[in-house]
Amino acid sequence: MSNLLKDAEELVSKMKIEEVAKELKYDAEAIERLNIPAYNWWNEALHGVARAGTATVFPQAIGLAAMFDDDLLFKIADVISTEARAKYNAQAAEEDRDIYKGLTMWSPNINIFRDARWGRGHETYGEDPYLTARLGLAFIKGLQGLDNYPECDTLKVAACAKHFAVHSGPEGERHHFNAVASKKDMEETYLPAFEKAVKEGKVESVMGAYNRTNGEPCCGSPTLMKEILRGKWGFKGHFVSDCWAIRDFHENHKITNSPAESAALALNNGCDLNCGNTYLCILAALKEKLITEEDMRKACTRLMATRMKLGILPRSDEDAKAKTAKYDTISYLENDTPEHNELSLKASQESIVLLKNNGVLPLKEGEYKTIGVVGPTANLRTVLEGNYFGTASEYVTNLEGIKHATKSRVLYSEGSHLFKDRTSNLAKADDRMAEAVIVTKNSDITILCLGLDATIECEEGDTGNMFASGDKVSLKLPEAQIRLYKNVLKTVKENNKKLIVVLNAGSAIDLEELNTEADAIVDCWYSGGHGGEALADVLFGKVNPSGKLPVTFYKDGEQPEFTDYSMKNRTYRYFKGTTLYPFGYGLSYTTFKAESDAKATGFVPEAEADYFDLQKTAIEVSVEVTNTGDLDGDEVVLAYVDKKPSEKVENGKNAAYKDALDPSNQPIKSLCGFKRVSLKKGETKKVSLPISAYSLTTVLEDGRRVFLKGEYTIKVYDKDITVTL
Hints:
Elements: H1 3-13, H2 17-23, E1 27-28, E2 39-40, H3 61-66, H4 70-93, H5 129-144, E3 160-164, E4 178-179, H6 183-190, H7 192-199, E5 205-208, E6 212-213, E7 216-217, H8 222-232, E8 238-240, H9 247-251, H10 259-268, H11 282-287, H12 293-309, H13 318-328, H14 338-351, E9 353-357, E10 370-374, H15 382-385, H16 398-405, E11 409-413, H17 433-441, E12 445-451, H18 479-494, E13 498-504, H19 512-517, E14 520-523, H20 531-539, H21 571-574, E15 592-600, H22 611-614, E16 617-627, E17 633-643, H23 645-650, E18 670-679, E19 684-692, E20 698-699, E21 705-706, E22 711-716, E23 719-724
Parallel strand pairs: 3-5, 4-6, 5-8, 10-11, 10-12, 12-13, 13-14
Antiparallel strand pairs: 1-2, 6-7, 9-14, 15-16, 16-19, 17-18, 17-22, 20-21, 22-23
Helix pairs in contact: 1-12, 2-12, 4-5, 4-14, 5-7, 14-20, 16-20, 17-18
């Protein structure tokens, strides 16, 4: 037994059982006789320290995913943890131990964005399991402190992987919904990011989801929590319920009959901490002999161990105390620094995806005497924030960024409300439409700013969602904006003007008509406190756009039923229709050319090798990338694997798996490597992409992940590289 566990157990042994009960809820009470201060476990850090006052506001998670840059994401998470420590140290000194002011961060959200209508999809890293797993790992390590690995016996802050495990809407049904997922989809799509977070990231906490998965409530699931998380993966940290999710057991899922039964189901399956109030009934569950005192103390021990790792509670290990002591010295002056804001700006720049450009971009100073900026998102701060955001000390909207970047005359019209048919309640419908047309007529070029914010796509019940409990009812823009862009398009055509569309949203939007008619389209996501400055940097050529789509952009109406959790015909890995913009898409102001080759490393794992064996490199792909254009720029090199395991089975190899393999239910292709590289004009660099054996595995219908020997095709740019293993 480790010293940490001994220390935690010894502390818990001194508690009365009534005191233990008070420590199992998110707003844990002080135990003065044991010198245990009150502590609130509920803290947020999705893209910056959130809901706790001033902090650096980075782009929303989906924008951070569009960077395809896990090195930069690690640095961002490190900054977030520094600011969390800076704020915690100062606030704790003032005895302010309120919600959102602690060190246990309920981030990242590593669910898979399987359906573009899901309102919380912008909290995730997109639709791909490989990308999500790598970015989630980088974020977790940045939060928890890289120098704490591999032991992770101390923590800068505690990260939390959520929502375990099969969770992506619909938001309006999440309190009673049963997500049915096949064993194959579980292993291939829904679980990999969580497995990497636990096994490689040593994530300190895992949060369960509201819904049921295959009939079991996620915060009381023996399959998810006992069999997979703690059993198969060896998770040692603490498990926390989503907020008031345990109450759903009896009120909505109807699988228990009382709060005491719900508390018992959660605790008995390993839920240590209740975000909500159901564990107020945990002593009643004990009295009814639904749980044991030992179970309560085991949960409390895990929670005390986390607080000890953070240095909140004392421990006997002198080396560990010295590690956390350095975090205690982080001053409040290390919050919201100029350097942190520069990093936020860089992230905003890297996250921008250029979807279309017929040559109109980048804009040259003096090229257009008058620039029109039109649209409801042009001067809207909420499109910089997304959800789960902090308070920036400075915001730069799209309009402000453009005005600061040019000497040209800038005309502005809101054009329309974000979704209502008028901006003023006393006015007639489309009360800003005439002004939008006038601005467009009087401008040499128009920048039309469209999109959504967290009142339209967000978490159920959050910010007063205006539509489907936070989910999108369609992939189209709101009707008010459709009328706006149709009138602007008409005016542009009639007056032979140019049109640039700027999109701020956290998900795929059907831009089919705009893609046909606009001269350029720039996707900025929810772009962070400095989002408008980053946009202007891209529009005026100070920065060459380099972001790539972490999601597929579809035409509206082409997705399966929202409640169907099968991956068939979902995401780029399985979608068989025509996309507007594919996963991984993104243009640049320069051009790149690549020559590729690949070689096997000689490592061929056993058919059913263990997790860490499968992380070894099986194929090394080398790509010589040349910037063949006239501008410096960043390129994101993407590698996909195309597997045809059915051929290997049918030709006599791996015959034992034949009955469990459905060739028609395998991915079209899967991301297996990516690397961002900066290139001066004319410069060539060699980029190496190690492809792990894990990326080459095949998941059978029964959920087994196996390695099938044979030929593998690695796709890089337009090159197909075939390797035999």
